[in-house]
Automatic annotation (TrEMBL):
InterPro entries: Beta-lactam/transpept-like, Beta-lactam_resp_regulator, PCN-bd_Tpept, Peptidase_M56. It comes from Candidatus Cellulosilyticum pullistercoris. CDD domains: M56_BlaR1_MecR1_like. This is BlaR1 family beta-lactam sensor/signal transducer. The chain crosses the membrane at residues 6-25, 37-54, 112-136, 326-348. Residues 392-591 form the Penicillin-binding protein transpeptidase domain. The keyword Chloroplast does not apply. The lineage of its organism: Bacteria, Bacillati, Bacillota, Clostridia, Lachnospirales. The keyword NADP does not apply. Belongs to the peptidase M56 family.
Amino acid sequence: MHLFFIRFLISSLISSVLIMIILGIKKIFKNHISARWQYNIWFLFLVILIIPFIPQQYLDFSQLNRWSVDLQNKEDHMMTDDSLLNHKAQETLNQEGNLQDFSISVQRSTAAYINFALISIWILGCLIYTSILVIVKLRLNKVKDSIRVLDDVKIIGLFEKCKRELDISKDLIVGESGLVYSSMTFGLKKTYIVFPLVMTHQLSESELYHIFLHELSHYKNKDIIINEVMCFFQIIYWFNPFVRLAFKKMRLDREINCDVSVLQRLKEENYIQYGKTIINCAEKQIQPSFFSITTSIAGTKKEITKRIQKIASYKVENRWMNIKSICIFIFIAILILNKSAAISILGYENKRYDFKATHVVYEDLSSYFGEREGSFVLYDLQADKYAIYNKEKSITRVSPDSTYKIYSALIGLENNVIQVDDSKKGWNGQQYTYEAWNKDQDLSSAIKNSVNWYFQEIDQQVGYDKLQYYLDEIEYGNGDITGGIRDYWQESSLLISPVEQVELLTDLYTDNTLFESTHIAKVKEALKLEENNGAVLSGKTGTGMINDKEVNGWFIGYVEKNGQTYIFATNVQGEENTNGSLATKITLDILSDKNIY
């Protein structure tokens, strides 16, 4: 739920802009859109409201707009100098004690508290509006209990005639109640058309005919179901005035659409009489509630005025009008789909990898991970076969943390920021929490001690554009370095899945990449950890820390044994005490049980 509501607000803002665009298009082309399509366009508005809750991997219409950068990055990395960050050391040791993974905690307190406060207010608002809806429905139940079913043969006959005209076969209940002030239609399982007491005897046959056609048009158009959907979204988006405005416009267009449906069945000389019927019903209408869970021929004075104007200017819609209407509808639909990824708040960071390997065996290794979430991916290079634990987590992208330093080193070598025979960088005298950092470093010591400042200097000297180029070329995870050139790889914008880690290491090991062979050899030398019974273990750990809690642990690397190479990536996640040390232990236990190392 981290920053969920902040993202929801951004999504809601984008949705609001699209709503205003829809309103603008409808107004500009109002003379070129039929009443039916004026209403149909609002279904695209409902799509806009749904999209934020559809995971982005299912929205393949466009890529996330670059300007819509995750607010998490800005908050997490306001303090870029290591001396301003809270530090905590985590040491990962193998049998020879030659691998250390020092991690730095990033702080999310302000954003987390703001997000918690906002989401609490939102939930409170949802509960309040849900309570209002419950009250409205309880009142409607009282209306239902008070209904007296009409038994006037003449009226029922007229009603059945209208049903036949609209090709409606379902049994509907027609009655009257002293708790309603105008005719209305409601009910999903049992549908009721209800009149005020004695109103049916006060109306002429033509007026009843008009009302029946109008209310049955609502039923035929599934407007009762749409009412329920509208109520749901009014609760979710209670804070958004543009959504309320759009629903108000949608209800008016719905009534106009039903008016036109009735007019299409009347002779031209009866149009005026139909308008008078609407005015007559409007005089009995009370102020509508916030939630509209019924459909009615009546409405507010302003709405009735607009409907009468439409009736007065009504002309039979021709084929050309329908063609134009459909074209405008398609244009708006394309616009919405094109922006769908920017509206989505689920999968906001492109957090899944499309893994297409065929030689894969999925295993249950949950006993190694205990109560923590995680994944283990093992690739047998010679057999070209994957063994994977936790399919979903294996393709879910998370921060690489210090495992990214492998590629930072390669990019630095490629750009001559460091050299194969001279990778030394001088310490600037700044005191760090870890004594191992407070001295000059070369690539080997920087990898061994996971020295942040060493790789941050490399990245800064390489520059943003070149970093982005290399990450795009090797297809490193989501390739997003918008979190800042110093910190994008530590619980920030850059994300990668365990499967991708293995694929990239495979390319690196087999020299199937754009990096020079001598540079790859230099990095592989720095990654070598130990040798045990003829098997050589190489790798790099990573620990992600947020608010001084270790929440993300990595161990990636490979084992060379008897001419065989096994490439692995382990990721483990938890609320605390989840680090590279734990990932290393899990990995070594699994490799040992598989007789690999």
